[in-house]
Structures are given as structure tokens and as C-alpha cells.
Amino acid sequence: MLRLATTLGRVTATSSATFATAARVLAEDPMAAGPKDIPEKLTLTLATPDKALYENEEVYCTLIPSMVGMTGVLPGHVALVTELKPGVVVVQKESDGPKEQYFVPTGFAVVNDDSTLNINVPEAVPVADIDIEAARAAQTEYTNAFSAASTDEERARAQIGAELYGTMVLAASQDVFA
């Protein structure tokens, strides 16, 4: 217990010293901690293994289906690395322009502090191109497979498929981001 108290004391002392240094720097130059110039546009790359839908293209904003929910990314966004869940990536080139929507099954997004966003996904399908009846049929098939599954692996595969196609049906049946 004494060792833990000693270690915590050093951590607290180090943290206090670091905070004091940061406070001094900010007092001298209040802009030292923040971005100086935020670009007007976000630079987007949205790529699948075989093609880039956007390659270093300037856009107004992008919405991504992160694991914590829909995340809006504008120029000046804090740096972020996030896994994507099945859902819709929305790209808006101009503030008053149309929104392009792509269904993605999974992937990763990396937001850099220089207002660049890189989205890497195994597949990206324009929402308008989704065959909703085929997606519903696949969802039903996976739901039935889940009910009939006899092993944990079969249940897991069926659950993933049912959730994926259920999200696809939802994306295709309503224009949530119009």
C-alpha cells in the first residue's frame, strides 16, 4: 500500500507540474493550444479496396456511422480514429448542396488535425442503388438461420447478417438525411 501511495504521489506531482507549465504557456499565448487557421473545406478520401469514391476531394461536411453513433465531421474537427458500424456515410460538398449517401458494412475513419478525413471500407453502395426487396429477403434468411442455428458460431454469423441487412433495409427505406 505504501508503494501505491508513493507512486500516486509522484503521478500527482508530475501532473501538477505539467498542468502548471501548460497554464504558463497559455497565459503567454492564448492561441498556443488551438488551431490557428481552420480551412473552409474538409479534405475527404473515401476508398474501397478497388477504387476511391473520393480522393483528396474538398467537401463541406461528412457524417459517419461510428460505433458511438452518427458523427459529423467538419473542418477543424478534433483528431479521431473510429471503427465504423453498418450504416450510411453522408457526404455534402457544399453547405446548401445535395447529400450523397453510401451504405457501408464496416470500416475505419481517421480524422486528422489538418482537416483531412480518410474513410476505408470494404464496400460502399449508393443508397439509391440498394434493392430493398433483396435486402429484406436476406434479412429474413439470416433471421431464420439464427433461429435454426445449432452452434454459437452459426448463431453469431446469422446475427451479424440479420443486423447488417436490417440496417441496409432501414437505410434504403427512408431518406433520414435529406
From TrEMBL:
UniProt xrefs under CDD domains: F1-ATPase_delta
InterPro entries in the record: ATP_synth_F1_dsu/esu, ATP_synth_F1_dsu/esu_N, ATPsynth_dsu/esu_N
Main location as per UniProt: mitochondrion
Domain of life: Eukaryota
Subcellular localization: Mitochondrion inner membrane
Recorded GO MF terms: proton-transporting ATP synthase activity, rotational mechanism
Keywords: Hydrogen ion transport, Ion transport, Membrane, Mitochondrion, Mitochondrion inner membrane, Transit peptide, Transport
Annotated Gene Ontology cellular component terms: mitochondrial inner membrane; proton-transporting ATP synthase complex
Database matches in Pfam families: ATP-synt_DE_N
Domain annotation ATP synthase F1 complex delta/epsilon subunit N-terminal: ranges: 42-115
Family: Belongs to the ATPase epsilon chain family.
Annotated protein name in UniProt: ATP synthase subunit delta
Organism the protein comes from: Thecamonas trahens ATCC 50062
